[in-house]
Each structure stands twice: as C-alpha cells, then as structure tokens.
# Entry
Amino acid sequence: MSDKPVGSYGLDAHGNTILEEFRENRPVFAKMLSIVRDTLRKSIQDNHIYINAVEARIKEESSLAGKLDRKGEKYKSLDDITDILGVRVITFYNDEVDKIAALAEQLFEVDWVNSIDKRKMHELHSFGYNSLHYICRLPEKIYKDPECPQLAPDAKRPAARVGHPGPRHGLQDRRRSAP
# Structure
C-alpha cells in the first residue's frame, strides 16, 4: 500500500475514486491472488505438468494510476480493469502451454473477447517470446466455498490476467527474464 495521497497522482475525481477503491480492496486482492495461484499450482501438480515457475502479482498502485491517467474514461469502475491480479506460468515446452490453458478453462471463467494468443503472431520459424494471455474471473464456487478462506462478504471478483508464456528461445532459455 502506498503512503502517497491518492490525489497526488493528478487523476480526475473518477480516477481517484477507482484508486481509493483499489486501496480499500487490496487485502481482498491479496487473498484472491493466493487462491488463484495455489489453485493453479495444485492443478498443474495434480496433472503432472512440469513447469519452470508460477509467478503472481497484484498490480502496483502507481501502474494503476498511470493506466487510469492514460485510459481512465474506458473504465467505469474497478471491476472493468482486467489486470488487477496477474499470474504467469512459465513452461518449458509449447505443448505444456496448451495443457495449462485447458486447466485454466476448467478452473476459471475465461473472458474470450479480451484473451489473446500471442503465439499466433509469430512466424513458424521465428524466435521470441510466445505467450497465451487469458483474462479470467474467479468462479463463484471458488470464492464462496466454505473451505476457501473468507474473502469478504461483498468481495468483488476482479478479473485476473492469467498469462501462460511458452518456452523462451535462444539465449533466454538459460536466463530468466524479468516479468
């Protein structure tokens, strides 16, 4: 959480309202992120899929402020922002990306309109970063499950960008890139 006053980002009143709502819900987002990450990790492990890593993050407040400054009119509320939570699964091979995508489709509600398969943007023989980006929501069964940690009585279901990068090519095979 930032000690910086919400008004210091230079946003309009609407942007400040969304940023304040983000601050208020940050503890809920932290619990949701843990649920998403742990659910995905367990499913990957249960299905014997071997991966490099699972990374997860809550959007930085300053990044959200920048987004609201650039495109604030696009967002009516915090619920319209699709990348409050982000989970990245780094795989060794392309076929693992498809397996993990199938798991994500079973576990979460995928927003097909806003999801994108960047693997289709490369030439067949080109090198580079291959990725599949799913925009997902937690299904109600996960966040209202009595076995699940209590989020909040009125917890919203923020969309999370669940990225499934494919294998890194060339020199990046041996080095981990920053997310």
Notes: The longest strand covers residues 51-58. The domain at 8-173 is CATH 3.30.460.10 (Beta Polymerase; domain 2). Helices lie at 13-46, 61-71, 94-107, 140-143.
